[in-house]
Amino acid sequence: MKIKSLLYLLILHLPSSAYGQSGYFVGTSRESIEPDQSLISLHLGGYGAPREGRFTLQWKVMEPLTPVTAMAGMTDRLYITTDNKILWKSITDKNAVWTNAGDAGDIRLLGASDGFLYAVNVDYDLLVSKSGEKIKWKKKGSVDKTVSSLTASAGKIFISNQNGDIWEAEQYKSPLEWTKLEPFTGITGLAADSRKLYALNGEGSLYQLEFSKKGSRWLKAAYKNGITIKEDIERIAIAGNSLFGIGNDGILYKGDHRTEGNLTARAMAVKNGENTIVIVNADVCGLTDKFTGMIKDEILREKNIPAAAIFINSSHTHFAPVSQEWLTWQEANQLPDSIYLYLVIKHGILEAIDNALKNMVPAELYFGRGKTDIGYNRSLKDHPELYDSSVDVIKVDYRDNKSDSYLFLASCHPVFSTAGTLHYTISANYPGVARKLVEERTGTDNSLFLQGTAGDINPVDNGEYISGEKLANEVISVLGRSMTKIEGGISFYLDTINIPVTPWSIEEIIAYKEQNINKTGDVYAEKNVKWSDLMLKYYDEGTMPSSMPVYVNTINIGNWKLVGFSRETTTAYGLGVKNLWPDKLISVAGYTNDVSSYLPTHMHLEKRNYEGLDSFFWYGMPNVFPMTVDETILGTIKNLER
Fold first, then answer.
1. What does DSSP assign to residue 45?
2. Which residues pair with 109 in a beta bridge?
3. Which of these, 539, 497, 268, 303, lies nearest to 405 by C-alpha position?
4. DSSP conformation letters of 15-41
5. Per-residue pLDDT for 542 more than 70?
6. Residues 6+ apart with CB under 8 A from 444
7. Could you please report the per-residue DSSP string of 237-253?
8. Buried b / exposed e along 417-434 (16+ C-beta atoms within 10 A)
9. What pTM was computed for the model?
């Protein structure tokens, strides 16, 4: 009986064990990386123009009000003064009505924080009351007679005047001790949350100051652009996590991100034997190696998966909030919002990876290739052959009969649209359209897009929905044809190819700065001045780079090879890698693990076109790559034979 029992257990165990060695376990996941309302307004990445910026804030009509003289907000309610009364209303109850909280009397200004309401009266007394049903004022101090705005948040009281003076004080100190903040002229309204102070000026522009951070400067956060913001807002307040405004039309507005709501981080985890890889795509314009390195370090610590096995690709949509440094651009989009970068994007990527690993079940993988005409080579137009029209598709066929998952790769810049409301709208662009259509038409609950070598490829059609439809149709067509089964083990590599760079001399930089310094209002000249200042800073600090690294991430899953280049990789690199192994199943992505400049070929460098020259100033690089860059990189890849 013991022998029979042992044999029976062995037979039961064999299929699972055998599948673990020769088959795959696959899991997919997606997480939203949409910004929430607490981030008020973010700058979209991808374009250095218009000079005024592309901000996500829009105003939504809430209700008309009688003339309002002051407004304030706290966690769950708004306060206004109107008709000599102080009224409050819940912002969490859809059926709420305005409730009388007391006589406004001689109140000129209102602010609220941590359960307390603050006011300044006509005698410039600073008053305080608990925010109960009825207001009972007590004098807390006095303010300067020039004060014209008041707000409070996070235990602080802020006041300002139209001369540009701004003061802050700790609300629980008695007497109050006022200290000056960075000045800002022309303030007509103030609002604050736990980390930022917002100022509205007479032109309807919104500015922000990260008061909790030393050395912070006022940066534009939104403006009346005549397209997505047309309202004349006179007063602002933050209640809960949202910005509210009152226009000169007497209407109460609520601030909101203008978005299509489709930014995601998506992951596919594949395991064979002892090896696991994870392929990630995030709907961002780009990420830095420092940021993706943090993610990889965390995955290594928690999951024991090496950095080389984590492949992080950016879709490169030009309509996601800034996610990397653009130090030569206008101030408002030089740095990403830290909360959005670390608490939204980083968290979303880590959650997607974690859930993909948890969701792994037995599956078979299949490869197919189609073609699409969504793009063209925008820079080498006399070489139409330099466009990789391939649409590579991976089908995940789960053994438990759950719906399939799909990964697909195409190469084209997501740059719709450069005009109208879409220019100011958060969007995954055509990759988001394609994913949605593939999912709707196949019944899958997850598909993953990878951006190919699209550095010099622009769309041929004027519309994200046209390109997205074309791409989705081809993906579905590939799925309907015979596909090649992927079989074999997993391996992974992450190689660094350091390309030497010769920086400009100090004299050349100074001369270049002088050529551009007196062209105020010219976006390109201003960019060149900022680039010059950045290079001089590098010289002063002794940190001028002597080389520019190109990272090549190679994932082998059986007979399928996925190669990912860092930087904005131009088409010839993808075609070049495929030509090295013409008989193999090879997919090539750009925008992987780091997007720190373009990766041009000698043809772009010879022409001195955007990819071969001007883009390096936008990216803050010390110089362009040498003429031999493509020969060096492709030769190294061939010799490594990953």
1. P
2. 120
3. 268
4. HHHHHHHHSEEEEEEEEE----GGG--
5. yes
6. 403, 404, 405, 406, 438
7. EEETTEEEEEETTSEEE
8. beeeebbbbbbbbbbbbb
9. 0.94
R_g of the chain, CA atoms, integer Å: 28
Cα–Cα distance for residue pair 377/155, rounded to 1 Å: 55
| Tokens standing for residue 566 | 């860092």
Asked if residues 172 and 155 have their Cβ atoms less than 8 Å apart, the reply is yes
In whole angstroms, give the CA distance from residue 141 to residue 126. 5
Q: How far apart are the first and last CA of the chain?
A: 51
- Residue (of 487, 409, 392, 408) closest to 444 by Cα position: 408
Do β-strands 598-599 and 568-569 pair in parallel, antiparallel, or remain unpaired? parallel
| Residue with tokens 């989009």, as numbered in its chain | 333
Beta bridge partners of 562: 555, 587
- For strands 310-314 and 275-282, give the pairing: parallel
DSSP state of 426: B
- The 3 state secondary structure assigned to 264-309 is EEEEEEEEECCEEEEEEEECCCCCCHHHHHHHHHHHHHHHCCCHHH
Residue 476 and residue 438 in contact, taking contact as beta carbons nearer than 8 Å: yes
Could you tell me which of 224, 181, 230, 226 has the C-alpha nearest to residue 202? 224
Q: Which amino acid, residue 29? A: S
Please indicate whether residue 105 or residue 283 has the higher confidence score (pLDDT): 283
User: Angle 194-197-201 (CA atoms, 0-180°, nearest 5)?
Assistant: 155
Task: Decide if 282 contacts 311 (C-beta within 8 A).
Answer: no
| E strand or H helix that includes residue 71 | strand 70-73
> Which of 69, 72, 102 is closest to 85 using CA atoms?
102
Q: CA-CA distances (angstroms) from residue 603 to 278, 388, 393, 412, 571?
A: 34, 16, 30, 19, 11
Q: Which pLDDT score is estimated for 1?
A: 40
Would the pLDDT of 48 be above 80? yes
Class of residue 107 by CB neighbours under 10 A (exposed 0-12, middle 13-18, buried 19+):
buried
In this structure, which amino acid lies at residue 275?
N
Helices and strands: H and E segment counts in the chain: 12, 37
- DSSP-based three-state secondary structure for 326: coil
Q: Provide the pLDDT confidence category of residue 15 given band limits of 50, 70 and 90.
A: very low
Question: Is the torsion defined by CA of 225, 226, 230, 235 positive or negative?
Answer: positive
Inform me whether the pLDDT recorded for 11 exceeds 60: no
Enter the tokens of residue 249. Answer: 């039309």
Q: How far apart are alpha carbons 34 and 265 in whole angstroms?
A: 10
CA distance 355 to 100: 49
Phi, psi for residue 478 in degrees, rounded to 5: -60, -40
Q: Quickly count: other Cβ atoms within 10 Å of residue 496's Cβ.
A: 11
pLDDT digits (tens, 9 = 90+) for 359-373: 999 999 999 999 999
**Pairwise CA distance, residues 230 & 42, whole Å:** 18
Q: Please report which confidence band the pLDDT of residue 22 belongs to, taking 50, 70 and 90 as the band edges.
A: low
- Look at residue 526 in the predicted model and tell me its pLDDT: 95
Structure tokens at 1: 């009986």
Structure tokens, 267: 């992951």
Q: What tokens were used for 446?
A: 């997850």
Q: Which of 492, 401, 486 is nearest to 23 (CA)?
A: 486
Grouping H, G, I as helix, E, B as strand and the rest as coil, residue 177 is coil
Does the pLDDT of residue 10 top 80, yes or no?
no
